[in-house]
Design a protein that fits this description.
The complex is a heterodimer.
Chain A: H1 2-12, H2 15-33, H3 39-46, H4 55-80, H5 89-100, H6 104-139, H7 142-158, H8 164-178, E1 181-183, E2 188-190, H9 196-199, H10 204-223, H11 239-248, H12 250-265, H13 271-285, H14 298-321, H15 327-339, H16 352-380, H17 388-407, H18 411-428, H19 433-457, H20 461-464, H21 466-499
Antiparallel strand pairs in A: 1-2
Chain B: H1 5-27, H2 38-58, H3 78-83, H4 91-111, H5 113-127, H6 133-154, H7 165-168
The chains are: A mainly alpha, B mainly alpha.
Chain lengths: ~500, ~170
Amino acid sequence: MIEAIIAGLTALLTPQALLFMLIGVVYGLVIGILPGLGGVVAMALLLPFTYGFETAATLALLLGAHIATIWGDSVTSILFSVPGSAKGLALCFDGYPMTQQGQAKRALAASATGALLGGIIGAVFLALCIPLIRPVILALGPSEYLMMALWGLTVIATFSEGSLMKGLTASVLGVLVAFIGMDVVTATPRFTFGSEFLMEGISFPVAMIGLFAVSEMMKLAIKGTPIVDRSLVKEESTVWQGVRDGFSHWWLVVRSSLLGLWIGVLPGVGASVAGLAAYAQAVQTSKTPERFGKGAVEGVIAPDATMGANEGGGLMPTLAFGIPGGESMAILLVAFIGLGVVPGPDMLTKNLDLVFSMVWIIVIANIAVTVIGLGITPWLARLPSLQANLMVPIVLGVCFVGAYATRGYIEDVVVAAVFGILGYLMDKYRYSRANFVIGMVLAVMIERNLHISLTLYGRDFLLERPIALAMLLFVLFTAALPFVRNWRRKRKQAAAAGVAP
Amino acid sequence: MMISRHAQENLASVLLLAFFAGVIWMCQDFGPRARMIPQPLAIFGIVLTLIQMAWHNFGSPAELRMDMISVQAPDIPVAEAQAAPEKKSSWRREAAAYGMIGVLLALTFITGVLPAAFLFTAGYFMVTRYCSWQRSLIYAAVLTASLYLLFVAALQMQPYHGLLAPLFQ
């Protein structure tokens, strides 16, 4: 194994591999920052350029780009509350308030450090766990995935903004919107009104562009002042503060990384779920949950650490079984085919050096992203103080082009505009946009796994699957936890008010 | 005529009720498996909206609050908040924001995605008097060129040329 670790690193220390990784990282950062385009698009567009080069160099290019998109996504979420893709959504909750409070540098640096530490933890665990994880993955079936998706939905209880009913209504709306299009289980077109375009469903990145980017620009145009008015709120934080935050919250980073690793291992559960789940666990395990959503640095560190580790986790089923852990891993599988690499048990014996090359790529690419990220943070932190009249047309122009570029359909521009207005109205009347998006993310997973569970095990599938039953109990426990905490806090407050003269 | 916030909230709830009712009605055309989740969910949506309406009109809104976190409104010190210039988002500004989205959408359909970005950016700068018309054109051209390089040259996007394109062919 030691030889494989060294051979994996040696394969990367060629000029071609290092150059490719650097190109991938810079390219990934740019793509990550563009709205609507995430790691999947970054890797897909690189595929045609990967043939005919060294295997390690090709993987360095692809994985380097993919890893860089993680932090790229976080940048726009933190600075403008505009997630580059679904993954970056959780960063809006605390990153954006930090920017508004003049702590953009700290937030960006904490985000980069969290992603770096998460990425390294994920890579190390990938190296250690490959032989151990196989029986665990094989023990889980659709019923367990259904429970995991339900657990994701219980996160909604945590994301309540004011009225709980409005929060839940928003999530119901999100789930229903996700059902637009052809139902893959029954081959029934649902809510398509005969439109060929709607048969493919609402594109998730386009909906995100509308709900967050377009609606935020509408708000900015109405307000007429910059996101951060430097005459009122001075940028007082430093990059090193953020770096220190990342290291000082080491236990949160470890917890979030392990969560990201676990979610990455599960096929079909994407990084978007990972970021939200990380945020939820950070809130639920915090002694001061009331600080979250108002600029708590833990709310930035946790999602980034999880998403960093998620990549290492996603590689496990991809390499060991040829089952992609997510969309980006599916593209990596296509690259494997082009390179003549066959995923499966042989990867852990004959091609172990290649596996360790990928582990090293994750580590080195994460370091490169963090170094570049910390270097450009002081400049990035100035962006929110730009005049609203400069920001609005530029961001809207990029958003509309980005919406079109997602699938190449002009109708997607209309979808972005409609969701923009919907997002603005939801924000105005305090229907949580975050809940809406969580509903959209989990809807398909819930429906698909429910159908498969019913087909395989019948109506009493929970009794047939004790792991799923245990998970359901866990879901109920975590769903009740915020309510119990809230009730306790209110009781304490009432008691304190009673004691006070 | 201005509608009160209370009435606006009720209107939003009524629209939601209509939406959920529409979903239930459309679900009747689907098979039992295809409507297994959407139909009960829409019914749940109606129940939630009715509870929200009832509390909004007859109860205390505080009873529906959970406030585990608030995803918005960071704590800016009171003195600073008071020092901020009062810029009320009047209905005129709001209508202008809707109009802005409409104009960009119309331009996109008529001229194509990249020319629309150019025209919209230059026009916005000029209308808001952010800078002189010469500078507006230069900034818009730089943005459009950057978008072209990123999306068309680097990412190989096939640009949409708009409804006017046949006239120039």
